[in-house]
Amino acid sequence: MATKKNVFISFDYDNDAHYKRLLLAWDANKEFDFSFYDGSLRDKIDSKNAPYIKSVIRPKILAATHLLCIIGKESAASPWIAWEIEVANGASKKLIGVKIEKDHTTPAAMLAKGATWALSFNFDAIKKAVDSA
Questions:
Q1: pLDDT of residue 47
Q2: pTM for this structure?
Q3: C-beta neighbour count of 98 within 10 angstroms
Q4: Superfamily assignment of 5-132 in CATH?
């Protein structure tokens, strides 16, 4: 029996939390044979809380088998998303990207890392990407 995939979701809290909630709702579907880490960051990466937040988030990323990055309009500019991707990549986690809209810019940290891509933000495309990663 295959090991259940544990997916850490990287996303822009201010702009794309709706899409993270949608993923969590899909997680209840028996066709999704993986689980998501449901953690959200509201603080800026350079806030006074950043070292503490990183100390909490890093083990969650390291415990995951995959990092799924929801790429919205502002994701490429997010230092949190870049940091999460770099932590996952440094730990040889499988990376999955899904753009909310095709014209959204991919975060530089995702480039040339062998990421698997969901070609659209829908249940079937994301399930296929996670299953094949």
A1: 62
A2: 0.87
A3: 24
A4: P-loop containing nucleotide triphosphate hydrolases (3.40.50.300)
